[in-house]
Design goal:
51% helix; 203 residues
């Protein structure tokens, strides 16, 4: 940080660099949150866990929100942290639903205790590339594919024909959304291929 007051505070309190003040801030906020929620468990972006590892500092147990790759979940769960995954499920990216459906939040983890620490995941939709005019088409129907992936067993969603089995359900769900006035995007990415099951032509 370049703020002179913060730099002075760091000097007075023996906080040596920006990484250390980031960890101090995280710990301070954790204490506030836990005091106000009667011992609740805080959640941080995985950057906080990574910063602690980099500096060799042991931070209190928290839920690691992994917006990156599977290696984050592997490392954080090995350290005893529970993990929520959003990496690979960012709806503001122009990624088709198929890889979102087959993504395994426990990928690379074989230890049963570590696998239990993967709590689940969430779909993320940031506002840099959408507003009220396109937020629904960005979110749906891909959010439904992510939801089904998260409540399905790895054997079901990870099967070779999982995408082909799920596609008719997703098409049907998109039709339901359209008929209820929700401006859902197409399943296939092109309106012509999606017109048939719905009976709704989108030009």
């Amino acid at each position: 940080t370049k703020d002179p007051d913060v730099r002075a505070w760091m000097a007075d309190n023996g906080v040596k660099d920006d990484l250390a003040i980031y960890l101090h801030f995280g710990d301070y906020v954790d204490q506030l949150a836990c005091n106000r929620t009667s011992g609740g468990t805080p959640m941080h972006w995985h950057d906080y866990w990574a910063a602690a590892n980099q500096s060799g500092v042991r931070v209190q147990k928290h839920i690691v929100h992994n917006w990156g790759g599977p290696e984050i979940s592997v490392g954080a769960s090995a350290d005893g942290h529970r993990v929520v995954v959003s990496g690979g499920w960012y709806l503001d990216n122009d990624q088709p639903w198929e890889p979102m459906y087959t993504l395994d939040p426990q990928a690379g983890i074989t230890d049963p205790a570590q696998r239990q620490r993967i709590l689940g995941g969430e779909a993320a939709l940031w506002s840099e590339s959408q507003d009220y005019s396109n937020v629904m088409s960005r979110a749906w129907p891909r959010a439904a594919a992510i939801a089904e992936r998260l409540w399905s067993s790895v054997q079901t969603a990870g099967a070779n024909d999982a995408v082909n089995v799920a596609r008719p359900r997703l098409l049907q769900f998109r039709c339901l959304l359209l008929r209820r006035g929700v401006a859902a995007g197409t399943v296939s990415g092109t309106p012509v291929k999606d017109a048939g099951p719905c009976g709704i032509e989108l030009n």
